[in-house]
Amino acid sequence: MNEEHYLLFELKQGNKEAFTLLFQKYYKDLVLFGGNFLYDKVRCEDIVQTIFLKLWSDREVLVVNTSLKSYLLRAVQNSCLDEIRHNQVKYEHESYTAAFGLDDNVDTENYILYSDLQNHLDEALSKLPEACRLAFEMNRFEGLRYKEIASRLDVSERTIEVRIGKAIGLLRVYLKEFFLLVSMLLFKEL
């Protein structure tokens, strides 16, 4: 049993010292990794601390199929992408409000419509193959160019083009009922 497996075993038994050792071992690397997605160190620290709190609270039912470090890195990545999506929704809502003003009835209806659309979009994104979803989100939600994404993911620019093209094709199918509205929000640059 290697050190990580031992600490994970002890964590599941409620050993606070094992939790502290895991926190000290991975905290800094996880915050730095979060910086690849969010350029806000404080927010990255908040995300990593939240993940460790969840690790502790879920320790008894925790299932780690890969290494714990891979599990934690994936958790940081997903939380950062959730944060980016949330910020994008906030930004678009603020832009809409600034452009069209606030009418309580209309605003409520639009919020419900927008919230419903966001739920459908989240569901559709979750159905995408992981590599396609990641490339698409980095392009559309972070505003990264294909070349920047290729560099971050260590693949060719052509691979990113293919992945994003496949993601768009699948989203058109998954979101066909909302295609016009989604097109205005996500595909305006195409």
TrEMBL record:
Q: What InterPro entries does the annotation carry?
A: RNA_pol_sigma-70-like (IPR039425), RNA_pol_sigma-70_dom (IPR014284), RNA_pol_sigma70_bacteroid (IPR014327), RNA_pol_sigma70_r2 (IPR007627), RNA_pol_sigma70_r4_t2 (IPR013249), RNA_pol_sigma_r2 (IPR013325), RNA_pol_sigma_r3/r4-like (IPR013324), WH-like_DNA-bd_sf (IPR036388)
What sequence ranges are listed for the domain RNA polymerase sigma-70 region? 22-88
The organism's place on the tree of life at top rank: Bacteria
Report the leader peptide range: none
Would you name any one GO CC term?
Answer: DNA-directed RNA polymerase complex
Q: What are the UniProt keywords, alphabetically?
A: DNA-directed RNA polymerase, Sigma factor, Transcription, Transcription regulation
Residues in RNA polymerase sigma factor 70 region 4 type domain copies:
121-167
A Pfam family assignment: Sigma70_r4_2
Hey, which family's this protein in? Belongs to the sigma-70 factor family. ECF subfamily.
Name of the molecule in the record = DNA-directed RNA polymerase sigma-70 factor
Upper classification of the organism:
Bacteria, Pseudomonadati, Bacteroidota, Bacteroidia, Bacteroidales
